[in-house]
Write a structure and sequence with these properties.
The complex is a heterodimer of chains A (about 625) and B (about 375). Chain A is an alpha/beta fold and about 625 residues long. In chain A, about 35% of the residues lie in helices and about 20% in strands. Chain A is globular and about 85 Å long. Chain B has a domain of about 230 residues: Thiamin diphosphate (ThDP)-binding fold, Pyr/PP domains (Rossmann fold), CATH 3.40.50.970. Helix content of chain B is about 25%, strand content about 15%. The chains are: A alpha/beta (about 625), B alpha/beta (about 375).
Chain lengths: ~625, ~375
Amino acid sequence: MANEAEVTQSGSNGHTAPESIGQRPKVPITLLEDVTIRFAGDSGDGMQLTGTQFTNTTALHGNDLSTLPDYPAEIRAPIGTLYGVSGFQIHFSSKEIHTPGDHPDVLVAMNPAALKTNLGDLKKGGVVILNEDAFDEKNLKLAKYEVNPLTDNTLDGYTVYRFPLTKITLDALRDLKMGTKEGARSKNMVALGLVYWLYNRPMDQTLEWLKSKFGKNAQVLEANTRALKAGYYLGETAELFNARYEVKPANFKPGRYRNIMGNEATALGMVAASVKSGLDLFLGSYPITPASDILHELSKYKNFGVKTFQAEDEIAGICAAIGASYAGDLALTTTSGPGLALKGEAIGLAVMTELPLVIIDVQRGGPSTGLPTKTEQADLLQALYGRNGECPVAVIAAKSPVDCFDSAIEASRIALKYMVPVILLTDGYIANGSEPWLVPDVDLIPELTTKRRTVKSDATFLPYDRDENNARPWAIPGVEGLEHRIGGLEKQHLTGNVNYEPANHEFMVRLRQQKVDGIVQDIPQTEVLGPKSGKVLLLGWGGTYGAITTAAERLHSKGVSSAHLRWMNPLPADLGEILKNFEKVIIPELNLGQLRKVIRDKYLVDAIGINKIQGLPFTPQEIITAVEQYL
Amino acid sequence: MADTPKVPTPPPFKAFPGKASVAPPPMQAKTAPTPDLNVDMPVIALTAKDFASDQDVRWCPGCGDYSILAQVQRTLPELGVLPHQMVFVAGIGCSSRFPYYMNTYGFHTIHGRGAAIASGVKAANPDLSVWLATGDGDGLSIGGNHTLHILRRNFDVNIMLFNNRIYGLTKGQYSPTSEVGKKTKSTPYGSIDYPINPSLFALGSEASFVARTIDRDPKHLQEVIKRAAHHKGTAFMEIYQNCNIFNDGAFLNLTEKDVKDDNIVFLKQGEPLIFGKDKNKAIMLDGFTPKVVNVADVSADKLLIHNEQDPILANILGRMSEMEGFPCPLGVIYAHERPTYEEQMTEQITTAKSKGLGDLKKLLNSGNTWSIN
């Protein structure tokens, strides 16, 4: 475990065991600075739920934390198989952290397949907690183990705790008259209870949650409650563990916090943008992993006037949003990579008609269907360039689960101010990952101003007239005297009438580009962490923020700084100068070097890439190792 | 940007570089007295002119589209909806230039997607009167999916599908309604594509209103437009339209004086399907099979009586247009109102709001929260 502190601490302080049982002397509690745990099991074993529960309890405890769910694309992959393994990693700490951890300290493995696919990631000497009941001949074969890893040297060098979790579960539920299969389902709760005990966490939050989730099904509620407690008491009575651990609360800024996932934050950000602009929010969307949760979330908020429209396809999703924008709503469409490809032509229409629109792409592994449940940053070039014609689109990227909230508001603000479509890039990692969020003061979120024109002015109405930002007026159907026609054919300057004249076309193409370029005035100065000039600048964008920042922090003393981009188009005005201050610019990306291409193109800087394309986020150590060869 | 000096700066945007006049269109004298969307009747009567924009109409001379445009502009003043309360949406194709010629709000969108965009417009503002101009290629080929879904959802949108059985704007390829064997630029050996019947497609897509009419019968066209406008829900109009450049005469049997009476049966609610130059022919049903009979040979109570609300009959009438020896039914084939998408959407929102308006502060602070002091 990382950074062990004082070893002796009584386990009696605070909220430890809910009921005092057993006569055993208290196991001493070891203080740790941070811990990474990975729960892994079959995709039917409830590992996401187990991880989420541990996360919520840990958040309430006041730790900083970061989570990484990792699950298969199949809803219920064949039981016991290697590709059916579902994992959930949580990194929690008494200090500020930015990533879900490099290597887990603890692996909870519910079956052989989970052990096989995850053991390699475990820290040397790490703890393995496993369900030995699952290590039968059939499961070993499915996991492609020729020899039972519990009997050979596979687990040498690790601290292994074997429990018959299935049997313990069934024993605890014996008098409930549940079938073996049904009863055994609660074994994830036994594992969770055990880990709660081991990390000195109270069960209250999960007990409450079980009540709200299964309140109507007394038997299931009872089964899960008993299983959770059985796990907790197992730790207390098994006399196997000679230490328990505690990670003290982190030193957070005062305020109200909640734990939040990226997609949830994105949805809340859009609701906030709707409230702050005074416009109804319209979402046109087609379900796609990993973006669907934004649709699910927003469909709940009818009391905010949110209209969600599950369209027949990706194209209809964005087109309905464009229609709603034309009619005066704050319009949104959400998707992932393949869907963004389908929306390309319609994005061009929004560019041509200069309508405000937010397009959210939760990036996943590509190309084609690719890796639907895994993360990647390979849609940057698609977002920047993936359309016919000269078709500039403003592109912003969120850096963390919490940042999705601010980025959604910022994307809306720019769309409304400049009358443009804005693409917001998030990714599967930050969309499904979570971290504590200091809930913002609603009154401090600025109002969003719009170009809406709802009354007839005295002057003749020109639908393609411009303000100082080159934005055209947003004349809403229903207003007398502002009747006008728009469309995808080239527009005549000012009047918006169809126009094929050569000079007008070039003028309008340049004007649309100039308008998007002009957004640069809204982009704050780029923050450089570490020395402002020197050997190496680590330049990143999007969801790699946590890993890059952590890596850079560990390398500041060796002359490594970092900067993170939020706006991908336009790029911040000061970026060119910043790049010149460093001998080397290194760009870590979860793609083959898309930002690197853009930087080389725009600034003629010979940037170096660190590229990982495995459907997984960077660990800080991977970046450090790669950077060190240039130091 | 500081380090991209070589990018030429666009001319100042107000100084138009071309020769064309940038003078805006003169504002038309507006007769409508009030911007209130809920007012049904304008105080001062509008005319067709009030619905015509200042743009030159650019269809080929002799195109059937001119008649459709004229009938729409003639009918709208009678509907009691003011120009600024209307949105004409279109996809791509000859028919889809329609919005440019209407002095209403208008949106010429992208190929096939008009139905989806019109759905968004209506959802955003249910008070607007939304119309969609589309064609057999736009609405049934590239946009077939969206046509299906707007119909089953039943947004209150009026769809005019101009069916000329050819691709006009791309200069003469066969369309999804072209007959088998048709020789076109892309089918020099004759088309092997089996055609779709638009009205049947609409019925199969759970349309709540399906009507068929033709460009060359202005009176009938106007009647159908009026019926569609008054129908609450998606009103699907299949309008036979002659493309005199690439498919001239496609509907000659329905337009030529000497044959049309024998080839058309006009549908009237509650009345028998009588047709023929001498009004001496009628339709009766033998089980589900229609038969052409002489009126004189059959007692009146045996004749098929039109019932717009009968979905089974609607399918028989939709199919009849392509049955050998039968007349083509024109008129309202099916009309049966059911709740529209937007009114149900609005109702859900109203109900949710009545239980407590959304409070952003509460929302952000919901879930498991904890405080650090």
